[in-house]
Design brief:
alpha+beta, 7 strands, 6 helices, about 170 residues
């Protein structure tokens, strides 16, 4: 197959994972059932990935035929996995979007406890970034604006009339 080109595809991301500083899963989504068909294989891969990356001072690794980009902060490790022929810059843009979105959602307090407390919104942000392995959005500001579910976080002066009115009618009931 020398000199042949791979068929272009939108399915670029094979998986996204957030692990704690012990290598335990906080949140993970795998989009290609051919790569990791069972949860047992997923966890074994995560353990191997964590063991290879938790001491490394890099941001990319090739492991088990996958290109994995990663980033760590305090007690969390963020991973985005793609196939071995995938563009690392695209995977890195997904990783940066995930990290920046989580950082904005948690108000720069990116720690295990804060992620667990807001796990529903973090999961929603992950779904807004990637759906079924297809990258939907790589802009953290637009992701955060779509997952901002709480009106009480917005100061009253910055709310639209509809948001303020909804808050009042919701409280009156």
């Amino acid at each position: 197959m020398e000199g042949s080109l791979l068929e272009p595809t939108l399915y670029m991301v094979k998986g996204i994972a957030i692990l704690d500083n012990d290598g335990n899963r906080i949140l993970a989504k795998y989009y290609d059932k051919n790569v990791f068909p069972t949860a047992k294989e997923q966890r074994a891969f995560e353990k191997n990935l964590f063991n290879k990356t938790h001491r490394a001072n890099a941001e990319i690794i090739m492991l088990d035929g996958l290109t994995c980009v990663y980033r760590s902060n305090v007690d969390l490790f963020f991973y985005v996995m793609g196939s071995s022929h995938e563009n690392e810059l695209i995977l890195m843009s997904v990783l940066n979007c995930l990290y920046d979105s989580v950082s904005q959602i948690l108000r720069k307090n990116v720690e295990k406890r804060a992620v667990l407390d807001s796990l529903d919104i973090v999961m929603l942000a992950m779904d807004e970034i990637c759906d079924g392995g297809i990258i939907i959005d790589a802009d953290s500001n637009s992701v955060v604006s779509r997952v901002a579910l709480r009106n009480d976080d917005i100061p009253l002066g910055e709310q639209t009339v509809a948001q303020a009115n909804f808050g009042l009618t919701f409280c009156d009931q």
